[in-house]
Amino acid sequence: MSARFRELAWSSTPLGELVLRRRWDPAVETEVYEIKLDDEFLMSSLFTVAEEEIARRALAELDRTHPETPLDVAVGGLGLGYTARQVLAAPRVRSLVVIEALGEVIAWHRDRLVPAGAGLADDARCRLLHGDFFAMLRSPAGLDPEEPGRRFHAVVVDIDHSPRHLLDPSHGDFYRPDGLRALAGHLHPGGVFTLWSNDPPDEEFTTALRHCFDTARAEVVRFPNPLQRREATATVYLATVASGDPDR
User: Fold this and answer.
1) Number of folded domains in the chain?
2) Model pTM?
3) To the nearest whole number, what is the mean pLDDT of the chain?
């Protein structure tokens, strides 16, 4: 058995003090990896269902809109890597760009400090890119500096806690119509946008999505919380660009 608690990495970042730690949880008899930013928990390996679902549901929607197309996907937010790993589980994913604002998080994966690190770093389809997803979205170059103006079949985002609970105020314009329309412009016709939220469905945000995309909906994801012995929920927002819109 490992030590009960171990801090694997610590650094001071523009967003606050960032900590990666591993602990043995006797309640579930497993090692748990956790990311903290100051006093907030950003991610735990105990609760990965919703992070995986934003990828799985985007790919399922692409089975309908692009049933035979090799897929190019962008993920905003790396975290412990569960969203990116779920994307790469689909054999027809041709390329994946993962954009992470904190270089330290990318280093954790490349240094194999987290379980998903080796799988992501060693997959030739996957590129871990240090950058501000929201600033890149606003820039003319877009989400891939190696191919300015590139479009994707799916953009999957797991950065803020919710459209209202932001890690940084500078992210706020992304969740308004102009920001959502900018994101839609980075998708191929028939492309898909999914977003993770820790809050219940937000009707105001869903309405904004419907003004900017051809279809939009909020889906509640349910999963067990073994620590509190109850069911927990999160929200996945899913929006699609019209298949027949060549200007998108």
Assistant:
1) 1
2) 0.91
3) 91
